[in-house]
Design brief:
The protein is built from 9 helices and no strands. The longest helix is centred in the last third of the chain and has 37 residues, at 161-197. With 201 residues, the protein is mostly helical. It folds into 2 domains: 1-92, Orthogonal Bundle (Rna Polymerase Sigma Factor, Chain: A); 109-193, Arc Repressor Mutant, subunit A, CATH 1.10.10.10. The chain has helices at 3-14, 21-40, 43-59, 70-88, 113-119, 122-130, 134-144, 150-157, 161-197. This is RNA polymerase sigma factor, sigma-70 family. It comes from Pseudodesulfovibrio aespoeensis (strain ATCC 700646 / DSM 10631 / Aspo-2). Residues 24-91 form the RNA polymerase sigma-70 region domain.
């Protein structure tokens, strides 16, 4: 859905057409539910939290700034719903903190989409990204799956633009290292199979 259509729907909702909001729900319920499932690990809880996120978005729609993309604003609300649930249930919250310890410098890695194309390989890459710590995983998904700008990532995650770049940079590096480990393991397996299959002279 393009931004002009989103803006039109939001105007309709604010003018009293509550049913128009369903178009936004249908468009974004997939990624919102996926976020909740990643953070809760339970399909029923994820569905309930996704519904809560959309309910909260509807109630606060008047606070949305026109001229900006709707999805980053919605995703930020959804993250807050997820965080509230984690606090209530005693889940570890440190993964959402802006901790730069151990991160590489932003300028040490490219920060554009070509970096992802160069380093990642389809379904395997997605599996590696999903295996990252949540604060890196969410930043990577926002950047490369949902096309968020660094500014949008920063606003959504409540961090600085520099922090957003560092999370992407560190995430790319960790995925690259994972690919290297897998390739090394595969090479070792091939060597082992070659030795075991060789006939003695």
């Amino acid at each position: 859905m393009d931004e002009s259509r989103e803006a039109e729907i939001i105007r309709e909702v604010l003018l009293g057409d509550a049913q128009a909001f369903e178009a936004l729900v249908r468009t974004y319920q997939g990624p919102v539910y996926a976020l909740m499932l990643r953070n809760t690990g339970d399909v029923d809880t994820a569905a309930d939290l996704a519904q809560e996120a959309f309910t909260r978005a509807y109630a606060r729609l008047e606070t949305f700034s026109t001229g900006k993309r709707f999805f980053p604003w919605l995703y930020s609300l959804a993250l807050n719903v997820s965080r509230d649930w984690m606090r209530r249930n005693g889940r570890d919250m440190h993964v959402f903190m802006d901790d730069a310890v151990g991160m590489v410098r932003v300028e040490d890695q490219p920060d554009d989409r070509q970096a992802m194309d160069d380093r990642l390989d389809g379904a395997k890459a997605f599996d590696h990204v999903m295996g990252l710590a949540p604060k890196y995983r969410e930043a990577m998904l926002l950047r490369f799956r949902y096309d968020f700008s660094f500014q949008e990532i920063a606003r959504t995650l409540g961090i600085t633009v520099s922090g957003a770049k560092m999370r992407i940079s560190r995430g790319l590096e960790m995925v690259r290292l994972k690919f290297t480990e897998v390739n090394d393991d595969q090479e070792q397996e091939r060597k082992t199979e070659g030795r075991s299959g060789a006939r003695p002279a």
